Amino acid sequence: MSANAAALPGEAAWPRFLAYALLATFALFFVMPVYVMLATSLKSLEEAQSSTMWAWPAALSLDGYRAAFGSLSRGLINSLLLTIPATLLSSLAGSINGYCLSKWKFRGSNTLFTLLLFGMFIPYQSILIPLVKFMQTVGLYNSLFGLILVHVVYGLPITTLIFRNYYATIPDELVEAGRIDGAGLLRTYWYIFLPISMPSFIVVAIWQFTNIWNEFLFAVTLTSSPETQPVTVALQNLGGSMISQWNTQMAGALIASVPTLLIYIVLGKYFVGGMLAGSVKG
Amino acid sequence: MARVELRRLVKRFGDTLVIDRCDLTVEDKEFLVLVGPSGCGKSTLLRMIAGLEAATEGEIAIDGARVNDVAPKDRGIAMVFQNYALYPHMRVYDNMAFGLKMRGHDKADIDRRVREAARVLELEPLLARKPSQLSGGQRQRVAMGRAIVRQPKVFLFDEPLSNLDAKLRVQMRLEIKRLHERLATTIIYVTHDQVEAMTLADRIALMDKGVLQQVAPPQTMYDAPANRFVAGFLGSPGMNFVPVAIERDGSFFFAKNESLALPLAEGVAALSAFEGKQVVLGVRPEDVHLTQREDKPDHAVDVSMRLIEPLGSSVVLFGEVGPHPMAVAAPPGTAARVGVTRTVYVDMSKVLFFDPSTGERIS
Q1: Closest residue of chain A to B130, computed from CA coordinates
Q2: How far apart are CA A174 and CA A181, in angstroms?
Q3: Do the Cβ atoms of A100 and A156 come closer than 8 Å?
Q4: Using CA atoms, how far apart are residues B241 and A172, in angstroms rounded to an integer?
Q5: With an 8 Å Cβ cutoff, are B83 and A277 in contact?
């Protein structure tokens, strides 16, 4: 156990022990399906059966990975082409929204913000049919570009919220100092706010990347051909044959989850605070 | 030449009147300190001069030109904020250079001005640092440097020292004073600290509830406050106020209440109009003495002692005259005991009287 687990002075050790035991049980419960997925993905087709799902593979086989990668490669590329621009665009848009809604308030800006937040509470299912119709009408149905736009729009509430709340913690005097220095709305954003927004960009990027990458409903309804389908749809199609190739499906699921894991590992370390330290009284 | 004129200036936030018809002229090269309690409108007034708040009514003129509709950057002002508002991601150099860069100055000119300001403020070794690597006093100096490089006509300071500890505050106060002598520009300085106001100002403008109470040089304001609010605001411990009635006995006037009877010095003609009426007597703690001095118009009053505050350079005795509090500033080492009644002597030549209904000083 780590040093943190040691009982504090005057505190009995056993409640702490119980708490850790409980947490360990929950962790185990959470890890079990991951174990089954990993074990099954490394089995050969013959060995991958639901009756032996708990067993570690007798002989390690990469057949599942080969098959899955072959079927998913197009979907993976599509997902990257979808997720990266959609994440960047929705982060940037959210940042600009949040900046205006927190630092350049105008009449009705709070109402506008509230309305914008409503977007988070609209179930995707409820707008699916009009959305498909609309995308068909404007000629963006079955295109990655169309899907990007949809994700940018549906990302606005959450990205705006995160950026607005971050900018709200930045003293207004920074804007005022900028105004006296001769920077207007745009230059204040570009020279002052954008450079200190990195912590929020990281949070928003991880959030948006994960959401858009994993998103299935829009992907399956707004794309109709393998040329445009993201990996989530391709993954679903893996299970579509007569017999269930469990090893391939599990390998596919693992492959499809690698990018979001990577994003978290790579960007997570930039989760640094203190960007604002020293700007105001310390 | 940088004269700032405010004419009938009014500011309302919704229905709330924050500044009420303010008339004020700040002369060229003058150091004017705007002082007053929290929420009196002094910062709002400064922000209106800066152009960060729009005036509801009235006129602001700098150098004789109306600037109500001029953007902050074009008013020829620079401002130092209470929390410094340094750009956190920029080095000290870039913080100071930013305003010049925004105005399109060329690189050589920016460099020359930034280095000159850094030299004046002794910031040269810190130019490559980020604000987070600076102490409070250093940040304060960077904020001033950012203002200096612009070579503004008017410097605006918004409580610049209130985030510093007591010792540093005194040091920075001196630096600001020296800076003013060196730069010879108009300065408008907002503070709630009366010591800063007294020490820095050529003239003090004292505000309360959005209304300018008095504009005068520090000593004038201290000796001849326009009203009871001004009298009570300046000075620590504050002026003693005792309600009395003006009574006449033959040709002599007395200020009387149930606990004291003080003969008035001659020449307070205005007081005769208050004969038989209530007024408020005001006397500063340092004008109340423990012993009767020779040839001085001191008059005895009995004070029951409640609290003794030794300050090192003096001892403040807090007591009561009847039900009314009375503080006495006594020399250091004064032995005093709580609970006893002591006779003190009020210097009647320093006593002020205020109209209880309007608060105005009777003179």
Answers
A1: A278
A2: 10
A3: no
A4: 42
A5: no
A279 CB within 8 Å of a chain B CB:
yes
Confidence of residue A1 (pLDDT cuts 50, 70, 90): very low
Q: How is chain A split into domains, by residue range?
A: 2-41, 63-276
Using CA atoms, how far residue B131 sits from A282, B213, B356, in Å, is 10, 39, 51
**What is the distance in angstroms between the Cα of A85 and the nearest Cα belonging to chain B?**
27
First and final C-alpha spacing in chain A: 36
The amino acid occupying position B128 is A
Predicted local confidence at residue A47, as pLDDT:
85
Give yes or no for a contact between A162 and A200, defined as CB atoms under 8 angstroms apart: yes
ipTM of the modeled complex: 0.85
User: Number of Cβ pairs closer than 8 Å across A and B?
Assistant: 86
B 156-195: CB under 8 A from A = 163
**Separation of alpha carbons A128 and A178, rounded Å:** 44
What's the rounded Cα separation, in Å, for the pair B57 and B11? 7
What is the dotted CATH code of the domain comprising A63-276?
1.10.3720.10
Contact B83 A177 (CB under 8 A): no
Q: pLDDT at residue A246 above 90?
A: no
d(CA B320, CA B10): 42
